[in-house]
Structure formats: structure tokens, C-alpha cells
């Protein structure tokens, strides 16, 4: 069986997590690159791959077909651009870039190649989110009135994610790092809840360098419904929480901490997912990528495009800069 020789650029926390996808038999992790040699060596040793600090060894190797990019956002354009130009398939971490100008450049490049250019937004491959989406699509909530997106953290960065860039205004913060996933969900639900048409926000920073500790926004949807967004980082918060609640005229649907539905005037009912479908999202994403590379055909789920990632960025940047950047 033909295997897809692959490489990782960025052997930090997320690079180490995503590497599990390359354990699927359709892939072979051949090269790991990081500016810190010890990080590249550590991850490469786990998979029997070659370690390097030189991205050129990936760019210039014709046997490498797929590259996963897990570097800080400010480096996304600089690293992703030559990989696309080298005619390799690309999986990049979110956000697409830091600025919308850089994002537009990558979208343009992605549209010129016949290779995969996708972003790691895993919820498209989550059976939990697919069930959530189906309940809304089937009309169980009735006309959508309100969406609430809330995140709370006792500390930022989180204990498992201590990196230099994750707490900077340029690259990190909970809105850019975590809310990007939730705003992707909002975009994916647009056929049922409406498109984002306006955003008004207020963001609080502890100083000129570090990421936000509090943010709140009102997101107006084309359906007439509104979405409220709140994030708080505070030592007084007991534990990390993330909520995504959609409320309609006939009921309310909550995804976290457990998928549940509450009919208007009724009790909260948990919604169970078939355990056989609860495989990690990397399995389903990997199978979709492998299918497209090996057969040239799209499988059961569409990969997240750079265009979709740019839409997410427009929402995130609109919140962070308190400007409507949705169509600039």
C-alpha cells in the first residue's frame, strides 16, 4: 500500500499532539523540524523520523507530500508560503495568520494550487458537533433567538500549554487561541442561525504586551438573532469552562460540558452518542486527507478551507480590535 510521506514543522505542544494522526497506516512521518533541536529530536525519536532545524530539508525533499505546520501565528505566512509553492499538501494550525492582509495572501496561494490546503479546525470531524448541528438543522429548536458563547479560565496560559507566545497580544490569548474554534462552529451553523453581519466588543488587557484577561462582544446575525461572547481569565474562577448554547423558540441546546437538549418548559435531557463513533477527530481528519491524496476524491466530510479560516479570523480580529472587519 502506498503511504503518504509527511513532515511536521513545529515540535511544540500542539505539534506533539497532532503527530498522532501520522500513526494511521496511510501515513509515514518522515521529518520533524523545529528551531529548537532538542524538541525536533524528541518528537522525531517517538516516530522513527529524521530531525532537523532546517525547513529547507522539507521543502527540497520531493518525497514529502504532506506538511503539518504548528508554529506561532506570526510565522504562519513565512512558513506556509514556501510549502505551498513547493507543491506539497498543507495542514496548518489556526489562526490562519495574524493579519487579514497575510491571510488574503495565503488564500490566494491556496486557490492557485491543486494540493490540499486545510486548517486544523477539528469540530468538523467531531461526531458530537455533527449531532449538535443536526439537531438544529432538523428544526427541533424552532426559530433561533439567541446564542451564548462563554469561556472562563483560572489561569492563562493553561498549565499544559506553557509557551512563550501563547500569552502575547500578537499571537495568543483565549480569544485567538480557543474562541477561534467556537467561531468556526458559529460559521458552520450559519445556514441555520444566520451569517455574522456585525460585531461590537470591549476587550481588557493587563498591559501592552500580554493577552486579554476579559472580553465581551455582541455578534449580530443575519437571521435577526444575536450571539453574546464572554471570556474571563481570573484566579477566582474555580475551573476552566466553555459553553456554546443555542436557544430557539421551542427549546435550548447545550454542547458543553455534555450535549443536552431542553424543550421549552421541560427538563434537561442528555443526548447520547454511539460509543463506536467516539473516535478522536484526528482519525477522521486523517482518513479524509488520505482519501483525497490517494484517490483524488472527497470523502464524507469536507476539509476546512483557507477561505473558511479567513472568515473565522475576521470575526476574531473584529472582536479583538472592536472593528467590523467582516468584509474589509
Jot down its keywords:
328 residues, 8-stranded mixed beta sheet, 10 helices, globular, Rossmann fold, 14 strands
Explain how this protein is built:
The N and C termini lie far apart (47 Å). Helix 7 (174-188) crosses helix 10. Helices cover 32% and strands 25% of the residues. It folds into 2 domains: 4-120 and 280-304, NAD(P)-binding Rossmann-like Domain (Rossmann fold, 3-Layer(aba) Sandwich); 124-273, 2-Layer Sandwich (Dihydrodipicolinate Reductase, domain 2). The protein has helices at 13-18, 37-47, 56-59, 76-85, 100-112, 127-137, 174-188, 190-193, 281-295, 306-321; strands at residues 4-9, 27-33, 50-52, 66-69, 89-92, 117-119, 144-153, 196-204, 214-221, 226-233, 241-248, 251-254, 260-263, 268-270. The strands form 2 sheets. It has an 8-stranded mixed sheet with strand order 8-9-10-7-11-12-13-14. It is α/β, with parallel strands linked by helices. The radius of gyration is 20 Å and the shape is globular.
